[in-house]
Amino acid sequence: MVERLLEDLAATRDCGRDIAHGLRGGEILLLDGPLGAGKTSLAQGLAAGLEVKGAVTSPTFALCNRLLGRLELHHYDLYRVESLDQLRRIGFEESLECDAVVLVEWPRLALPLLRGRVRLLRLDHEGEARRLRMEELDAKELPELLEA
Ligand SMILES: Nc1ncnc2c1ncn2[C@@H]1O[C@H](COP(=O)(O)OP(=O)(O)O)[C@@H](O)[C@H]1O
Ligand SMILES: [Mg+2]
User: Fold this and answer.
1) Per-residue confidence (pLDDT) for residue 94, from 0 to 100
2) pLDDT tens profile 63-77
3) Which CATH number fits domain 2-144: 1.10.760.10, 3.40.630.30, 3.30.1050.10, 3.40.50.300?
4) For the chain, is the Cβ count within 10 Å smaller at the N or the C terminus?
């Protein structure tokens, strides 16, 4: 488990950039944590690190943004996704099978579709700052770890 205290927005973005540098495609990154914890901000840093051009916006309404940089990045936000069926319809399984980096905010709904190794990135408020805890684990271990 890797832990980092992120003092401000810039630190969250930098942390996302750092994570991006180690990616080779095909990784599944689950961003867990309450509203405002910095999930989208981390995603923005990660996209910058992957050399995605242009603004990276929250996919809360779009549900998924597919972005292209050094690698493909599929950025999901499942907050408003209502069922596994809807998640399938927006192409989640295809994302898992291609070489894209798949980044998922509010990942709990996707649990039944996840297999093998995943990275869990948990963000929390800590005073005015944020704390990130990061670990790689098997998808089978997720149900006990993810927020409802
Ligand atoms: N490390 C940090 N310290 C303080 N504020 C942060 C930090 N990281 C991000 N923020 C701020 O938190 C707010 C919510 O961030 P956002 O990434 O939209 O959260 P989420 O996607 O988890 O809801 C934004 O205003 C952002 O600037
Ligand atoms: Mg968000």
Assistant:
1) 97
2) 999 999 999 999 999
3) 3.40.50.300
4) C
Atom of ligand 1 nearest to the CA of 11: 1
In angstroms, rounded to a whole number, what is the distance separating the alpha carbons of residues 78 and 47?
18
User: How is residue 52 written in tokens?
Assistant: 């995605």
The pLDDT assigned to 74 comes to 97
Q: List the domain boundaries for the chain.
A: 2-144
Å from CA of 47 to ligand 2 middle: 14
The helix or strand, by DSSP H or E, that contains position 72, with its residue range, turns out to be strand 72-77
pTM above 0.90, yes or no: yes
96 alpha carbon – ligand 1 mean position (Å): 27
User: Is the C-beta atom of 35 inside 6 A of ligand 1?
Assistant: yes
DSSP 22-33: T--S--EEEEE-
Residue with tokens 């992120």: 6
- Residue-wise over 112-122: b if at least 16 C-beta within 10 A, else e? eebeeebbbbb
Ligand nearest to the CA of 123: 1
pLDDT at residue 127, rounded to an integer:
97
